[in-house]
Amino acid sequence: METSQTHENSIKLTSTEDGIHLDGSILWLDSKHTGDISFLSNPQSATSKLDSRVIATEETIRILESFRKKPKALICQYNRPFAIGPLNMELLPSGVGLGGASLWVETNNKKILYAPQLQPQNSETCHHMQVRKADILILSAKTPYNADANISRKREKERLIETIKKMVSANERPQIFCEPYATGPEITKILSEEGINVAVHPNLFRILKVYEAYGSHVGSYIQHSIHRGDYDTLLKPIPQNKQLRRVFPKNPVISIEDNQGPRLDDGLFRKIDERFYIPSSCDGRELKTIVPKIKPREIYIFGPYAKDYVRQLRSLAPVVKALFPRHLPSLF
């Protein structure tokens, strides 16, 4: 099932469980299975099989290919306008990991900015976030509006470094679980710069090699194997099943929480020793400072917390509406 949202003289959008469709065109947004063409905002949006033909950055496609995925792709560079029929488009850096992008579209004398993830805080491992003026702005609301209220991303990184150093000094070898595409490279870099010897899971190792191939400096690291013990801490992707099952009891377990990926729950064999909140993208409070730069006339928000965001952002545009499939109402 699906639902459409529109405003008089506006572009019509249809939200489904498989992305958003720009009605009257072939363009979808972060769809995996449609038969038309879909913009892919980041590698994390394609954790499952991709049937759609996709528009994406070269970096995003290379990360997917490192995991033996071969999407049918139209590869585009940042800030290089291109057109498909009546759609004039351009990819802008979102600031969320290597290859992460927003999509700017002009059609029927309307300018649209699809920005499901934005990160204004520079991680130094990817391009800085860019936004552009648009008539219609499409945002996501996957976490509560003030998900990281009273939490400083900078202070959390400082606290993480301090915690790891204390554990290493105590001859402990902590295992850190994090979102791999954007947060993993950033954490690898900041720990390495502090003189901490970092080993990474093979999946994160593949991602880091793509980062380095595109000139990103992610610090020093080794690929983890059971035959190597010359490291202080081990970085792993958060398991998709959210269960912590195979961690040796002697190793402290650290979870880096992210507002877009899965949360690491206490598993069957042990609890989480420390949690840190270092999100890969900004929350609603930061969005409120970004939106005025875009100057939209209409804002459409999708995701489980869409209505919460609508209440908070309604003063920023004449039209602010939630956009979600009819059978999947927002939580608030």
From TrEMBL:
Gene3D superfamilies from the UniProt entry: Ribonuclease Z/Hydroxyacylglutathione hydrolase-like (3.60.15.10)
Designated name of the protein: Uncharacterized protein
Provenance organism: Pseudobacteriovorax antillogorgiicola
Superkingdom, natural source: Bacteria
